[in-house]
Amino acid sequence: MRKNLLFLILLFIFLVGLTGCATKEKLFNKDNFKITLTDAFKEDDYKGANYYFISKKAGLTVLEESYDELAKLNLSSESTLDDYANAVMEANGKNIKINKEDNFYYFTYDSTTENDRYYDMSALYKGKNGFWLLNFFGKYDDREDLKNDFLKYAKTVNVD
Predict the structure, then answer these.
(1) d(CA 149, CA 151)
(2) Domain layout of the chain by residue ranges
(3) What's the pLDDT tens digit per position in 82-120?
């Protein structure tokens, strides 16, 4: 009897611990940008980005490039996501397969900084005032989990 009671107590503690670690969806609603991540993400500042979100496992930089800024690359409000994607590839010296979703394009790649290897996914959107470049990143060893998470997050983006 005492063994069973101890087992039930330990099982209860284990189950409470599991639910305490679960993350919940969280909407980040900025002026002209919305995304649903999890409550594990916190907003922070990052030089060169409009918005920056970070968690223990992953991060996200968000950059809006206005049509005025992109005019030097011959991009305008008449340009398509294809045009912007090609300009991003050219500017970064990359030739990566671009995947197309209903309202955004994305591509994945690996990067290395300070001896750490990362898995990255960049997502591209067209808004009223310019194009948006989102860069999701996380440790390369976590890439299998991150692939699904990043795509799920990218599908929730709404830009004005």
Answers:
(1) 6
(2) 24-159
(3) 999 999 999 988 889 999 998 999 999 999 988 899 999
Question: Are the beta carbons of 38 and 107 closer than 8 angstroms?
Answer: no
Question: Over 60: is that where the pLDDT of 3 sits?
Answer: no
Instruction: List the beta strands (DSSP E) in 49-156.
Output: 51-54, 58-66, 99-100, 105-113, 116-126, 130-139
User: CA triplet 79, 81, 87: central angle to 5 degrees?
Assistant: 80
- What is the reported pTM? 0.84
| Phi, psi at 66, each rounded to 5° | -70, 155
By DSSP bridging, strand 33-38 and strand 105-113 are: unpaired
Contact of 139 with 120, CB cutoff 8 Å: no
Looking at the domain 24-159, which fold is it? Protein Transport Mog1p; Chain A (3.40.1000)
What is the token pair recorded at 16? 């409470």
Alpha-carbon radius of gyration of the chain: 20
